[in-house]
């Protein structure tokens, strides 16, 4: 039996409408994760006030999340936010505090829960950083291994818009994840950049010709958006920022990430509108 052209158009319209409706549902549920770098980059003696910027970045991310859920009807709420570390801090205080930052909002959530989010994300992250600084046992941040072992399980959910915000200086290093495969590595440091002679305007050609970059840690991350905040390159090399950004961009693309934003360390007042704009996009 032949299908009339009018019926074909109707079928096409219904299929398109269903697809769009499904996509809208997916993008309107927000699954927002933060991965915090608690290495010695937050040591106030080495880098005065840097950890304070971290706290402001976290507040900006929380503000974007709060704006998102307040823009929905209560009955439509199905959104969550959480904070991760890798490796997991041995300090039980930090682990206990981080649990308070895992929030989930649904149609049963009350306005008081939503309104308390601002205070929670003002007080708890500050206590976490202060505890880490007081201990002076900076375990570092194993971002590469987090992607290899945990990012899919922890940060990606079906029917959600999944966003992972990483607050770090852009260098990647941990003693338990330092290895190479041919010319690719699981780490990058100022000394590494110097050793590879990535200190001139030819850095891109050297990276391409030498096959340099991060080792791909996983794959199929098409449903995960990445925001990196606080990239803080050494001032000794005018191309340090470019090299770090190239490494990160190539790495994320190699794992299938379609949307990513790499932002250098800047005043929180400058970055907040940028963060709000990125997270508010569908």
TrEMBL record:
Signal sequence bounds: 1-21
The keyword Signal is annotated on this UniProt entry: yes
Keyword entries, A-Z: Signal
Protein known as: VWFA domain-containing protein
Protein source organism: Pedobacter ureilyticus
